[in-house]
């Protein structure tokens, strides 16, 4: 059997948005939390598929996509491009007053209007960043590690010295997973912990 790990294809977009939603509550299913189910994908998946599709990797065993990792080679350049090209049309479609204050949708819309930028201390030595999400049936079998290793190889080949990611401090399982893969703490802001590692083994 061939490996289920493959490069992203444009037909995967809807499935990856769905995975983002189904893992959007610190790894648990957030489907019931959003009036507009595509919102999470618009923030955490869409710009990567649009601007850096060559760094997107998918797990697919023939039954549909079940996980992915996404990356940006240069975080600052990626943030700037999103500000120019990705966020403006989303802000028009999702005005701040559109959703009930305090709702999950309102929280994501606030991010669209005021996107966070990675701290300078994080990107100084770890200019790339990644996102990874796997549905439950893909968890625990080493596929998360394989996805990240495959992305690290691509980042290293493109000249990146290091990669970072953000994880909620209230998600100790995820923090432990990344530490096991060689990620170390770089910085903490609010409830977000930034972890990073070299792109080299």
From TrEMBL:
<dbReference type="InterPro" id="IPR016181">
    <property type="entry name" value="Acyl_CoA_acyltransferase"/>
</dbReference>
<keyword id="KW-0808">Transferase</keyword>
<protein>
    <submittedName>
        <fullName>Acetyltransferase (GNAT) family protein</fullName>
    </submittedName>
</protein>
<dbReference type="GO" id="GO:0016747">
    <property type="term" value="F:acyltransferase activity, transferring groups other than amino-acyl groups"/>
</dbReference>
<feature type="domain" description="N-acetyltransferase">
    <location>
        <begin position="65"/>
        <end position="201"/>
    </location>
</feature>
<dbReference type="InterPro" id="IPR051822">
    <property type="entry name" value="Glycosyl_Hydrolase_84"/>
</dbReference>
<dbReference type="Pfam" id="PF00583">
    <property type="entry name" value="Acetyltransf_1"/>
</dbReference>
<dbReference type="InterPro" id="IPR000182">
    <property type="entry name" value="GNAT_dom"/>
</dbReference>
